[in-house]
Amino acid sequence: MGCMCGKESLSIDDRRFFIRQRLGEGGFSYVDLVEDAVSHKTYALKRILCHSKEEEQIALQEVEVMRAVAHPNVIPLECHSFHKVGQYSKAVDITCEVFLVIPLYRRGTLQDRIDTLKLKKEKFTEDEIWKLMLGICKGIKALHDHNPPYAHRDIKPDNVMTHDDGTPVVMDLGSAAPARMEIHTARQATSLQDTAAERCSMLYRAPELFTVETNSSIDERTDIWSLGCVLYALAYLESPFESAYQRGDSLALATMAGKINFPDSSEYSSKINDIILWMLKSDPQERPFIDQVLDRLHSIIHEGENRV
Asked: Where are the alpha helices (DSSP H) in the chain?
């Protein structure tokens, strides 16, 4: 990292970037606005702080997933670099930093849009909901179609950005991992449960990740649960388990019970609630796969276009 003409700068993948401002912080990383020194195009720079070899592997896996999955509805990786502590970081408890340069989405996240609608006491139209879900599900399909399949494991409105034209882009692949796992021992079960508690948001986490059973299997349908929660959030502007969380109830028990409450009145067709219930099955074996979800979304959108 250096300073050029009064601007803080750093080199990533043989490209130089000027740091403009801090955009946000998370539990494992923070994001800066940066400018390419040659093209002057602006990007977001995600800095992942690693405190152990295990965290380094998780960060490198995020890079691997981003490089492996190229799709319009999945965030692309412009460039990246890996820096051992002492190169750019002065924090003694950090072993390394991984820098990811990604596109800058000025419209923000779906959660930003949800928050704005709440303030204005407005809602998405049903057509908007179906189009957003279609784009999100296409992005998740790209992960699930990889060989071997990846699961995102932390799908939520905060992890979906939107292009200027409204196209949704699934981001934050730090929780992504091989989708299919066989859990044979208590140690494996505890390890996955601990990882999920650390990296998968409670309000959108599948029940099988709250309590991982020995001699069980996990597959990509953990994401289908999260997508059902996202569809609920698009329609009703909060997670289906928000009220349970606010009351201090156990989210693990709430998700395993699978009881989904809907507002008494809704301006949407019954298809919204039907698909939410179809996806939010506590037993993952009863949930659809992503291709089945996409088929149903295409059918609904096609019906709507024919009515017009």
From this structure: 53-68, 110-120, 126-144, 186-199, 207-210, 221-236, 242-247, 251-257, 270-279, 290-307
